[in-house]
Amino acid sequence: MKNSFHKYIPFQQINLPDRQWPNKVIEKAPIWCSVDLRDGNQALIDPMNLQEKLEFFHALCDMGFKEIEIGFPSASETEYEICRELIEGNHIPDDVTIQVLVQAREHLIRKTFEAIEGAKNVIVHFYNSTSTLQRKVVFKTDMDGVIDIAVKGAKLVKELTEQYQGDTNIRFEYSPESFSGTEMDNAVEICARVMEELGATKENPVILNLPNTVEMCTANTYADQIEYFIKHLPNREAAIISIHPHNDRGCGVAASELALLAGAERVEGTLFGNGERTGNLDIVTMGLNMYTQGVDPELDFSNLPKYKEIYERCTGMKINERQPYIGELVFTAFSGSHQDAINKGMKYMKDTDSDYWEVPYLPIDPADVGRQYEPIIRINSQSGKGGAAFVMNHNFGFDLPKKMHPEFGALVQAECERVERELTSKELYKVFEDNYINHKKKYDLLEHKLYDENGDKVTFTGTIRMDNIEGHDIAITGTGNGPIDAFFNALKGVGINNYEFMSYSQHAISSGSDSKAVSYIQLKTPRGNDIFGVGIDHNVNFASILGVLNAINRSEV
Ligand code: KIV
Ligand code: ZN
Q1: Which residue, by CA, sits nearest to atom 1 of ligand 1?
Q2: Is 211's C-beta closer than 6 angstroms to any atom of ligand 1?
Q3: CATH architecture assigned to 444-556
Q4: Half-sphere exposure of residue 236, counting CA atoms within 13 Å on the CB side?
Q5: pLDDT of the residue at 142
């Protein structure tokens, strides 16, 4: 491969020797602004139609967004119509502000003001590109020319606001597009001039939106730019500092988080990071990152699967399986040691009734985003014994004793290798059923009775059918200290001996209103191996007797 990295110019660092942001922490949610219907929409192969935009808009309102950029109404008739329908169709809740984007160009600004007539709350968002590169290769102009465009735009926006305002509450937003590719002092100057022109005050602040239009530097450098900008901006109190990060280096969330530390107060982004090229900042990830630090994101993420469905249907985009918090596989552990630790964490949560989420490998409780515990553990040939036992317990209520885990784990692993794929929970149960319930029975107990003699000895009598052959029935009887002992002695009487009793555990299991006992019996076989048998019956004693017989049956197949 030809090595061409020399052709790239390293990003210019910011001179900020006393930077403050590294010592800060995020303690509260920013003002969120969704740009799904504009930046997200303009990046789609098939932009959303009216119905889709309306549905998406309502979903954003339900999630709790109070500022929503609905489009670029001066850009096309469709965009204009959508804006009109939102206003005239009374789709906009009173506490939601719609935002409309427009280039700082006279005819487009005029058309935008026509589009917003009758709305209650509007942010008019105008922009022009300021970056060094765009000035050189696109506009072929100097900074003064670029400032002139912005100032003229601001003047017209102010004028039209006075003319159109009526019952509409209009606020202003200005973006020096490609802010992060602009010399910082130039970015400060153009924004200060726009603020002046708009008459920004502390009471009536202007939103200054500082886009990382193309992410070209490490997240710390973007944070430096934001801190530098805020520090040098005159009349800073009269501005709300907003960020608009894209994700070209895959660090959109990191850059946004550090920019908040650096003083940004407002964040523009999209659900699941849709947007131009590699996308905009993913607000879901950023918000849930806050949530997992104990900070209220002030957006409702409690039913993410619902939003995923709306998002995928309306945008035609697909969410990756590993997308934080919502990807299909993000609450799944395949590795045995991970499964084991999750299992223990879940048990710890249950046993201690802890107020805090303390489960290894799961940074968030899946239930908090509307996901389920069920898919947490999936079983493939790499999975450990703990994972299979977890699914048996969690999905089917069988609490296999710890000593049984290796035996059952090996059976599950053999099945995974046989089918050469992971097993569903139903298939896992079938492995259990085939091996511990429906296995071949050399000895079948046709009938039995237990007598309690004088309260301290128990006698067992019954009939065993041999090899499933009619007529091959043998009567057995034995006395012992308890039902299991009596049964053992009865078996010895007909030559079924040399099995040593090792351990026993039992619990209730219910299906519907029916409650049964399940017994797990561990025996040592005449060959010296350990083997488990499972017995299930309404009668606790009989469940144990069946467990003993099934262990012997499994050993003798
Ligand atoms: O990415 C960007 O710079 C933009 C601006 C128009 C805000 O989308
Ligand atoms: Zn953008």
Answers
A1: 213
A2: yes
A3: 2-Layer Sandwich (3.30)
A4: 13
A5: 92
